[in-house]
Amino acid sequence: MASHVQVILKQDIHKLGNAGEVVRVKPGYARNFLLPRKLAVVATGGNMKQIEHERRIAQVAADKLRKIAEGAAAQIEGLTLEIVMKAGEGDKLYGSVTSRDIADALAARGIDADRKKLELDQTIKTLGEHKVQLKLGHEVSASFTVVVVPAA
């Protein structure tokens, strides 16, 4: 009886490995858990070629998405957005500038940005310039400036 079998992971599995890796596991774990749930396939020559082919296709798709993200970053990098807010004494805002306000200002400029991917150093509660980072995915991000001005 084999003490271990080799399988190719189809998904990332915590404490075992990442998708596409060949790992050695006990036969019962493979037979009763990994294979029925389609989390892995037995490491045969044909399966190895298939996984390698899928990995190349995924890499090409990831490269294409990265180029798109870099193009968007070039469009956003160095951009200055102006947001008008009501302010009181000492240049303190009534409320704060939220990620939704910034995403709406970007949308007004024709830039589609997910507000959840905006990174603020701290909440914007004062007038003036503030740096904001937008994560575009695929390890690409762009920074721009938000200028908060008082409402007339």
Query: What's the overall average pLDDT, rounded?
Result: 90
Number of domains: 2
DSSP strand tally: 9
Which stretches of 5+ consecutive residues score pLDDT under 50?
Answer: none
For this structure, the CATH topology of the largest domain is Ribosomal Protein L9, domain 2
What is the top-level CATH class of the largest domain? Alpha Beta
CATH-scheme architecture of the largest domain? Roll
Q: Provide the structure class.
A: alpha+beta
Explain the overall architecture.
The protein starts with a strand and ends with a strand. The model has no long low-confidence stretch (mean pLDDT 90). A four-stranded mixed beta sheet has the order 4-9-8-6. It has helices at 27-34, 45-76, 99-108; strands spanning 5-9, 22-25, 40-42, 80-85, 92-97, 118-120, 124-126, 128-137, 140-150. It folds into two domains: 5-65, 3-Layer(aba) Sandwich (Ribosomal Protein L9, domain 1); 73-150, Roll (Ribosomal Protein L9, domain 2), CATH 3.10.430.100. With 152 residues, it is of the alpha+beta class.
